[in-house]
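haha ok so turns out i had the wrong file open the whole time. this is the CORRECT one, sorry everyone. sequence first:
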Amino acid sequence: MTQLAEPVNGAQYLTQLIFGFAPCQVILAADELGFFVGLKELGAAHAQSLASHLDLPHATTVERLLNALVAYGLLERDMEGLYSLNDLSRTHLIPGEPGFLGGFFEHIRRDLFPLWQNLPHAVREARPQWARVPGGNPAGPFETIYQDEEGLRSFMAAMFASTYEASCEHAERFDFSPFKHLCDVGGATSAFFAAVLPKNPHLRGTIFDLAPVEKPAMETMEKYGLADRVNFHAGNFFKDALPAGPDMFVLGHILHDWDKEQGTELLQKIYNALPEGGAVYIAEMLFDEKKAGPPPTVFMDINMMVATTGRERTGAEYEQWLTDIGFRRTEHTVCNNPKSFVVGYK
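then structure:
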C-alpha cells in the first residue's frame, strides 16, 4: 500500500495540517462519481476503462483522482496501470458491505463542511452554527435525516459500522454478568447489542429511540440473531418516560451531544428509573487528563462545538458528574478504540 511521506520538519508538518481537507475531498469526490462501485463492477481497470464505464469524458482527470486514492492507501495500482479496490475500500466504501461508512458522506457534504467554516463564530458565540448554513435546520440534521427513510438507513448503517468494533472491545473488557436487562438509550440500530449480547446469552435488551428507527433497528437485530432477545420502545428520551424494567441503561455517544443541564436531566431520569444495584453505562470518546488528546477526541469536541450544545470530557469529569447525580460508585476504562466507557452504580 502506498502511503504519504512522514513530515520531516515543522513547515512540512503545518502544511500537511493546513491541507488536511484534501483526503476528505478526494474520498467524497470519488464516491460521488462512482469510482469505488465502478471498480467493484469492473474488478480492475485502467483509467480509460473506468472513465468509459462511468460516462466521464476525461480519462486524464480520472487517472489523477485514481492516483490520489492510491497515494492515500485506498486503491491498488499494478505495474500495468490497472487500478483495483483493496481491503480497506472494499470493506468500508462499497454500499451494502457491513463496514460501509458512506452513509456519513452526505452529512459531511451538506452539514459538516459548512458548519466548520463557521468555527470562528462558534468560538465567539458559544453556540452551534446551523443558522449560518444555507438551508440549514436550526434544530440540526436529525430532523432531516429521520424524515427520509433511505437517508436514515444509510446514516444508521454508517453509525453501526463506525462503532461496532469499539463495542466488541467493550464486550471483552466489561463484566455484564451481574445485569439482566439493558436499555440502549438513543441506540439506533445498536452496534452495542450486536457486540455485547452474543457474548452474554443471559442478557436481553431494549432499544429506546424515535419511531422511524424501529424498522432498521429490528432488521439489524434479526440479522445478528437477536430479534427474540431485543425489543424496540419508541420515544424521545427527554419528553417520554424511559422503559420500565432495565437494570442498566446504556448511553453511547449521547451525552456529548447535549449541554450540562440537558445531560443532567437525562442522567437524573436514568438514576430515578434504575433499581438499587443498577447502573448507567456511558460510552464516549474521553479526553486525557490534560485535554491535549487523543486526536479523535479533540476533533469530536470541536465538531460538537459547531454542531451541538455538547462537548467531550475526561473520564474523571464523567465520574464526578455521576457522583453529583447520586451514583454511589463510579469507574472508567480507556479503550484501544476511540470510544471508552464510564460506569455509575446506583
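The radius of gyration is 22 Å.
again sry for the mixup
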